[in-house]
Write a structure and sequence with these properties.
The chain has about 120 residues and is of the alpha+beta class. The chain has a single domain, classed as 3-Layer(aba) Sandwich (Trna Endonuclease, Chain: A, domain 1). It is built from three helices and eight strands. Strands 1, 2, 5, 6, 7 and 8 form a six-stranded mixed β-sheet that branches. Helix 2 packs antiparallel against helix 3. The chain is globular, with a radius of gyration of 14 Å. It starts with 11 loop residues before the first strand and ends with a helix. The relative contact order is 0.23.
């Protein structure tokens, strides 16, 4: 991934299924207890993390899921939180699907490691 391929804008969003919230802010905590939506995004049913650049896109995807009430829209407020989240997620998955459309299954696909490498060379 090169800098010209994608420009991160914050906040971006994931869909969390299990999580803890901060007692001070009520925001989702990006820690080892976080579980998130990881739909099949590659041939053969390989899963990837669904990240959305727009809350309306994320909410539309959530509404079309099987159990929308059990899925929470979680904002990733900045580059540091994105880096932390992807480091945790990379233990289970290899790909990120950005702005995945539930109806068409189209998205921009990236390797998690490519994104982490890019984030590590970008100023925070």
């Amino acid at each position: 991934m090169t800098k010209s391929n994608f420009l991160w804008q914050f906040p971006c969003y994931i869909l969390a299924t299990t999580h803890k919230t901060s007692p001070l802010t009520g925001e989702v905590l990006f820690d080892e207890k976080l579980r998130f939506v990881a739909p099949a995004v590659l041939p053969g049913g390989k899963q990837g993390i669904a990240i959305f650049t727009d809350s309306a896109l994320a909410d539309e995807f959530r509404e079309l899921s099987r159990s929308p009430k059990s899925v929470t829209l979680a904002a990733i407020p900045n580059q540091g939180t994105l880096r932390s989240f992807l480091q945790i997620a990379s233990h289970q998955l290899q790909h990120v699907a950005i702005d995945l459309n539930r109806k068409t299954r189209l998205a921009r696909l990236f390797l998690i490691q490519e994104i982490l490498d890019q984030l590590d060379t970008s100023p925070t």
